[in-house]
Amino acid sequence: TGHSALAAARQGGDVTAIDYVPALLDIARGRAAAEHLDVDFVEAPAEVLPFGNAAFDTGISSIGIMFAADHEQAARELTRVVRPGGRIVVTSWTADGFVGGMLAAVGRHVTPPPGARPATRWGDQQYVASLFGDRVHSVDSHTAVLTVRFVDAAAFADLFLGYYGPTFSAASKLDEGGKHALRADLISLAESRQQPVPGGISIDWEYRVIEAVRS
Hints:
By secondary structure, this protein is of the alpha/beta class. About 40% of the residues lie in helices and about 30% in strands. Strands 3, 4, 5, 6 and 7 form a five-stranded mixed sheet that branches. It has a two-stranded parallel ribbon with strand order 1-2. Helix 3 (about 70-80) links the parallel strand 3 (about 55-60) and strand 4 (about 80-95).
C-alpha cells in the first residue's frame, strides 16, 4: 500500500512503485493523493519489471520481493533496473523472528508448492548476496524489530487468518478441523513471544535490512 514509495516521495524522490495486486495499488494511490505526492504506481510482478536497464538510482523492497515465487528471477530483475553505482535496499522478515515462526506454522498445515523456498531466506544476508551475485558489491545488513500490539493472542490469530495473505490462503485450503488447528498454533506462537502492555500484548517482529551497491 505504498509505505516505502510514499516515504521516498516525501524526501523529494522521483518515485515509481510496483505491486501485482490492483487493490493495494488503489489504496497506495489514494494515500499519495491525500498527501499531494507524485508517485507513479505500476501493476507488475517482481519477476517481470516493465522498465529498462539501469532505469533507477535506487531499488527498494520492503517486505515485498521476499514473497516472489522465483527468487533468482526477482533478484535479477531488481539488479537489472538499478544503474551501476546505485543502491539496492531489501527489507525482509527473518526466519528466526516472529513472522518466520508464523510462516513456518503455516507450512506445517499446508504443504508448500513443489520447489518453493521459504520467503524468509531473504532475511539472510549470505543468501541474498548469493542471489545478487557479481551484479552487486559492498553487501551489508542489520536487523531491527517492529513492535506490534494486539488485545490478546487470539485477536492476533483471528486478524491474520482473516486478512494476511499467507495465513488467509492457508486457512482457505483447510477443513474446519484444520483451520482450528492452525489457529491454535498461531495463538500458541503469539503467547510464546508476547509481552504484557497496558490494554493488551506486544510482540517484537524481527526483520533484516540488506544494502548493496550495484556493480
